[in-house]
Amino acid sequence: MPLLNKIEEDFKIALKSGDKSRISVLRLLKSALKNKEIEFMRPLNDDDCIAVISSQIKQRKDSIEQYGKAGRLDLAEAERKELEILMSYLPEQLSPEEIDDIIRATIKELSAKGLQDMGKVMKAVMPRLKGMADGKFVNQRVKEILEGSKE
Fold first, then answer.
1. pLDDT tens-place string over residues 28-52
2. Which single residue of 14, 99, 116, 145 could bond 22 by disulfide (Cβ 3.0 to 4.6 Å)?
3. May I ask the CATH class of domain 3-87?
4. Can you give the three-state secondary structure of the chain, one letter per residue?
5. Domain 96-147 adopts which CATH fold?
Protein backbone atom coordinates (compact mmCIF):
# COMPACT_ATOMS: atom_id res chain seq x y z
CA MET A 1 0.00 0.00 0.00
CA PRO A 2 1.42 3.39 -0.93
CA LEU A 3 2.35 5.54 2.05
CA LEU A 4 -0.11 8.27 1.09
CA ASN A 5 -2.98 5.75 1.17
CA LYS A 6 -1.84 4.38 4.54
CA ILE A 7 -1.83 7.89 6.02
CA GLU A 8 -5.33 8.51 4.63
CA GLU A 9 -6.61 5.20 6.05
CA ASP A 10 -5.03 5.86 9.45
CA PHE A 11 -6.62 9.32 9.47
CA LYS A 12 -10.07 7.80 8.86
CA ILE A 13 -9.50 5.26 11.65
CA ALA A 14 -8.36 8.02 14.02
CA LEU A 15 -11.48 10.06 13.18
CA LYS A 16 -13.74 7.10 13.93
CA SER A 17 -11.95 6.27 17.19
CA GLY A 18 -11.75 9.90 18.33
CA ASP A 19 -7.96 9.83 18.85
CA LYS A 20 -7.49 13.61 19.00
CA SER A 21 -3.69 13.69 19.04
CA ARG A 22 -3.42 11.32 16.06
CA ILE A 23 -6.13 13.27 14.19
CA SER A 24 -4.23 16.51 14.77
CA VAL A 25 -0.87 15.12 13.67
CA LEU A 26 -2.27 13.38 10.60
CA ARG A 27 -4.30 16.45 9.61
CA LEU A 28 -1.12 18.57 9.67
CA LEU A 29 0.79 15.87 7.80
CA LYS A 30 -1.89 15.57 5.13
CA SER A 31 -1.83 19.35 4.70
CA ALA A 32 1.96 19.35 4.30
CA LEU A 33 1.71 16.49 1.78
CA LYS A 34 -0.97 18.33 -0.19
CA ASN A 35 1.16 21.49 -0.26
CA LYS A 36 4.13 19.48 -1.57
CA GLU A 37 1.90 17.89 -4.20
CA ILE A 38 0.79 21.34 -5.33
CA GLU A 39 4.41 22.53 -5.37
CA PHE A 40 5.54 19.54 -7.48
CA MET A 41 2.38 19.69 -9.66
CA ARG A 42 2.18 15.88 -9.66
CA PRO A 43 1.06 13.09 -7.33
CA LEU A 44 3.58 12.26 -4.60
CA ASN A 45 5.43 8.96 -4.51
CA ASP A 46 6.63 7.24 -1.32
CA ASP A 47 10.03 8.95 -1.44
CA ASP A 48 8.34 12.36 -1.61
CA CYS A 49 6.14 11.40 1.35
CA ILE A 50 9.15 10.24 3.37
CA ALA A 51 10.87 13.56 2.69
CA VAL A 52 7.82 15.49 3.96
CA ILE A 53 7.49 13.23 7.01
CA SER A 54 11.21 13.64 7.74
CA SER A 55 10.79 17.40 7.58
CA GLN A 56 7.88 17.21 10.02
CA ILE A 57 9.98 15.02 12.34
CA LYS A 58 12.84 17.50 12.22
CA GLN A 59 10.42 20.30 13.18
CA ARG A 60 9.17 18.26 16.15
CA LYS A 61 12.71 17.49 17.33
CA ASP A 62 13.63 21.18 17.13
CA SER A 63 10.48 22.08 19.07
CA ILE A 64 11.24 19.49 21.75
CA GLU A 65 14.72 20.95 22.15
CA GLN A 66 13.41 24.53 22.36
CA TYR A 67 10.64 23.65 24.81
CA GLY A 68 13.16 21.76 26.94
CA LYS A 69 15.43 24.80 27.08
CA ALA A 70 12.47 27.00 28.02
CA GLY A 71 11.41 24.62 30.78
CA ARG A 72 8.08 23.84 29.09
CA LEU A 73 8.17 20.09 29.67
CA ASP A 74 4.41 19.76 29.09
CA LEU A 75 4.75 21.10 25.55
CA ALA A 76 7.90 19.04 24.95
CA GLU A 77 6.00 15.89 25.95
CA ALA A 78 3.16 16.74 23.56
CA GLU A 79 5.70 17.15 20.75
CA ARG A 80 7.29 13.79 21.69
CA LYS A 81 3.91 12.08 21.28
CA GLU A 82 3.49 13.71 17.87
CA LEU A 83 7.03 12.63 16.97
CA GLU A 84 6.21 9.00 17.79
CA ILE A 85 3.18 9.09 15.51
CA LEU A 86 5.21 10.55 12.63
CA MET A 87 8.09 8.09 13.17
CA SER A 88 5.68 5.20 12.63
CA TYR A 89 5.41 6.21 8.96
CA LEU A 90 9.13 6.05 8.25
CA PRO A 91 10.93 2.88 7.22
CA GLU A 92 12.54 0.96 10.06
CA GLN A 93 15.43 2.97 11.49
CA LEU A 94 18.93 1.56 11.15
CA SER A 95 21.08 0.86 14.18
CA PRO A 96 24.18 3.02 14.77
CA GLU A 97 26.35 0.05 13.76
CA GLU A 98 24.52 -0.37 10.45
CA ILE A 99 24.84 3.35 9.78
CA ASP A 100 28.58 3.21 10.54
CA ASP A 101 28.99 0.25 8.16
CA ILE A 102 27.31 2.16 5.33
CA ILE A 103 29.41 5.26 6.07
CA ARG A 104 32.66 3.27 6.12
CA ALA A 105 31.75 1.47 2.87
CA THR A 106 30.99 4.81 1.22
CA ILE A 107 34.25 6.33 2.46
CA LYS A 108 36.13 3.35 1.04
CA GLU A 109 34.29 3.58 -2.31
CA LEU A 110 35.08 7.29 -2.59
CA SER A 111 38.63 6.93 -1.24
CA ALA A 112 37.86 9.78 1.15
CA LYS A 113 40.85 10.80 3.23
CA GLY A 114 39.69 13.40 5.72
CA LEU A 115 37.30 16.17 6.62
CA GLN A 116 37.92 17.90 3.30
CA ASP A 117 35.91 15.02 1.71
CA MET A 118 32.99 15.30 4.14
CA GLY A 119 30.64 16.95 1.64
CA LYS A 120 31.37 14.30 -0.96
CA VAL A 121 30.74 11.51 1.57
CA MET A 122 27.51 13.08 2.89
CA LYS A 123 26.24 13.53 -0.67
CA ALA A 124 26.76 9.82 -1.34
CA VAL A 125 25.59 8.50 2.05
CA MET A 126 22.32 10.40 2.54
CA PRO A 127 20.44 8.89 -0.43
CA ARG A 128 21.33 5.41 0.88
CA LEU A 129 19.99 6.26 4.34
CA LYS A 130 16.96 8.29 3.26
CA GLY A 131 14.28 8.00 5.91
CA MET A 132 16.18 5.30 7.79
CA ALA A 133 18.49 7.52 9.84
CA ASP A 134 18.56 11.00 11.35
CA GLY A 135 20.60 13.36 9.16
CA LYS A 136 22.14 15.13 12.14
CA PHE A 137 23.37 11.81 13.56
CA VAL A 138 24.74 10.72 10.18
CA ASN A 139 26.57 14.04 9.79
CA GLN A 140 28.12 13.64 13.23
CA ARG A 141 29.20 10.04 12.55
CA VAL A 142 30.71 10.90 9.15
CA LYS A 143 32.72 13.66 10.78
CA GLU A 144 33.90 11.38 13.60
CA ILE A 145 34.84 8.56 11.25
CA LEU A 146 36.67 10.87 8.84
CA GLU A 147 38.57 12.39 11.77
CA GLY A 148 39.39 8.86 12.92
CA SER A 149 38.19 9.65 16.43
CA LYS A 150 35.86 6.68 16.81
CA GLU A 151 37.07 4.07 14.36
1. 999 999 999 999 999 999 989 998 9
2. 14
3. mainly alpha
4. CCHHHHHHHHHHHHHHHCCHHHHHHHHHHHHHHHHHHHHHCCCCCHHHHHHHHHHHHHHHHHHHHHHHHCCCHHHHHHHHHHHHHHHCCCCCCCCHHHHHHHHHHHHHHHCCCCHHHHHHHHHHHHHHHCCCCCHHHHHHHHHHHHHCCCC
5. Arc Repressor Mutant, subunit A (1.10.10)
